[in-house]
């Protein structure tokens, strides 16, 4: 029985494979050389960490470990997480590589909006219910929110207090301040322990009684009521706007 003839490999195919192998080796060498240059050259070692003027409370010393590291190899995500944990008052944090050898940090500072007294602690929150700090002293310049007791496990700087009563209090304060007729008044205290009877105390000792239903509408009614100038606030104990017809109780 005649043997089958072996197929000959085309010289052209051999040449193509050889050239391809050489090409891959060249590409690999170039890649390795470029990678080695960018990750090993002292030219790209971080020499300085610059913090934006708006957040100078972030200490440059926090980045001592970063200096000297290669700018391509430094873990930006890790730095971001470390700063966020250390400085809960920071928001919109951005950490940028500035080539060849500098890191630039920019952010915004969370501003104190209200305080909450929880047992012996006083918590300072921003307008989004993020805890900025904990202390034992109350700041009379900030509205005090009285709410149901909080679990101790939730109380630490940087935590968002996603609690209905607190969100309601913040909404009241924001809308109160944005209502033109009420902007001349300052809020001293907001008691949201009972959302059917929210007690709002102003710095002039006037008490406003609200409930959570149609809250913004009732604040607008309050603004129109006070804007008429017919109420002697010094002789008024409270104004209850929970019903269709507001109730005004004198002292």
Describe this entry's structure for a reader.
The protein has 251 residues and is of the alpha/beta class. The chain folds into two domains: 44-109, Roll (Ubiquitin-like (UB roll)); 114-250, 3-Layer(aba) Sandwich (Rossmann fold), CATH 3.40.50.10960. The protein has helices at 11-40, 76-86, 164-178, 215-227; strands at residues 48-51, 90-98, 102-109, 114-118, 121-125, 131-135, 144-146, 187-191, 198-202, 207-210, 236-240, 247-250.
State the main characteristics.
Rossmann fold; alpha/beta; 4 helices; 2 domains; 27% helix; 251 residues; three-stranded mixed β-sheet; nine-stranded mixed β-sheet; elongated; Ubiquitin-like (UB roll)
Outline:
With 251 residues, the protein is of the alpha/beta class.
Number of separate helices: 4
The biggest beta sheet, please?
9 strands, mixed
Number of strands: 12
What general outline do the C-alpha atoms trace?
elongated
Spatial strand arrangement across the major sheet? 6-5-4-7-8-9-10-11-12
End-to-end Cα distance, whole Å, is 124 Å
Tell me the number of structural domains.
2
Question: N-to-C SSE series?
Answer: HEHEEEEEEHEEEHEE
CATH topological fold name of the largest domain: Rossmann fold
The unreliable regions are: none
Per CATH, the class of the largest domain reads: Alpha Beta
What would the average pLDDT be, to the nearest integer? Answer: 87
Please name the CATH architecture of the largest domain: 3-Layer(aba) Sandwich
Strand-pairing-aware structural class:
alpha/beta
Computed over alpha carbons, the radius of gyration is 32 Å
Helix content: 25-40%
Strand content: 15-25%
């Amino acid at each position: 029985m005649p043997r089958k003839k072996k197929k000959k490999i085309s010289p052209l195919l051999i040449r193509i494979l050889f050239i391809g192998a050489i090409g891959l080796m060249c590409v690999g060498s170039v890649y390795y050389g470029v990678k080695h240059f960018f990750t090993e050259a002292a030219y790209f070692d971080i020499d300085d960490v610059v913090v934006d003027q708006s957040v100078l409370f972030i200490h440059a010393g926090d980045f001592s470990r970063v200096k000297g590291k290669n700018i391509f190899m430094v873990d930006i995500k890790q730095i971001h997480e470390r700063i966020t944990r250390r400085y809960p008052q920071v928001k919109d944090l951005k950490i940028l590589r500035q080539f060849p050898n500098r890191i630039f940090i920019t952010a915004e500072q969370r501003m104190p909006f209200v305080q909450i007294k929880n047992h012996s602690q006083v918590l300072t929150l921003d307008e989004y219910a993020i805890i900025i700090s904990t202390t034992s002293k109350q700041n009379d310049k900030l509205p005090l929110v009285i709410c149901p007791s909080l679990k101790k496990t939730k109380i630490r700087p940087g935590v968002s207090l996603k609690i209905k009563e607190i969100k309601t209090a913040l909404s009241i304060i924001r809308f109160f301040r944005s209502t033109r007729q009420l902007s001349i008044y300052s809020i001293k205290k907001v008691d949201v322990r009972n959302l059917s009877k929210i007690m709002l105390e102003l710095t002039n000792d006037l008490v406003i009684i609200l409930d959570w239903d149609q809250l913004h509408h009732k604040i607008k009614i309050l603004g129109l009521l006070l804007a008429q100038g017919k109420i002697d606030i010094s002789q008024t104990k409270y104004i209850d706007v929970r019903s269709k017809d507001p109730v005004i109780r004198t002292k």
